[in-house]
Amino acid sequence: MTKHLQRDLEVLKQQLLTMGGMVEQATDLAISAVVDRRKDLAEQVLKGDDDIDRKELEVEDECLKMLALHQPVATDLRFIISVLKVNNDLERMGDLAKNIAERAATLCDQPPLAVAKDFRRMAERVRKMVHECIDALVERDVELARRVCLEDREVDEENRRRFAELQQTMKSDPATVERAVSLLSVSRHLERIADHATNVAEDVVFLVDGEVIRHLRLTRARAQ
Predict the structure, then answer these.
(1) What is the pLDDT of residues 186-216, one digit of tens each?
(2) CATH numbers and ranges of domains, the chain
(3) Could you tell me which of 211, 93, 220 has the C-alpha nearest to residue 150?
(4) C-alpha distances in angstroms, 161 versus 100, 103, 119, 165, 167?
(5) Where are the beta strands (DSSP E) in the chain?
(6) Could you tell me which of 4, 19, 188, 204 has the fewest CB atoms within 10 Å of its CB?
């Protein structure tokens, strides 16, 4: 590895870590905005979304520049490819955090639903997955990455429970429909953030071990 490539790889790693930190913060704030009914936190997430988009483009440009200039092979090539994939997942997580913040801002202006408190456990699971997938990436921790993949099933189950609860709430009281639909969207967005966190974890396994496990997850899902 040349000194120039080594230098650029370190710059790329720092940029990706910055991107990950921005997304983790946005997700954390969006979740708190829903659970604690904090409109100010929702507005903070909305204002920061453009920063995440700009950072995503910077990371992508850096990856493409390195592929063109250095023509990396083996482990270095795998790292850059993984960064491109992770970068995209992180940007999507940022978009989903923005979507949650938009719902939170609307819900804060309306009376709370009793079932809203049940989102705390699901939100905490998603918050944990986002933090762990970024830690796994930073530390190249395959075992942690594999645990994140397993945690995704729990979030899927939480999403199903929230759907059933909100469906019953709407049947019992039609006046709750608008708020319940917003909470259904929040639940779905949380579940999608968990999916992207799982994608990041799977990319960590590929980066470190060279093993593609994404299709194994899809096969298990179809078998259930």
Answers:
(1) 999 999 999 999 999 999 998 888 887 776 6
(2) 3-223 (1.20.58.220)
(3) 220
(4) 18, 19, 10, 6, 10
(5) none
(6) 4
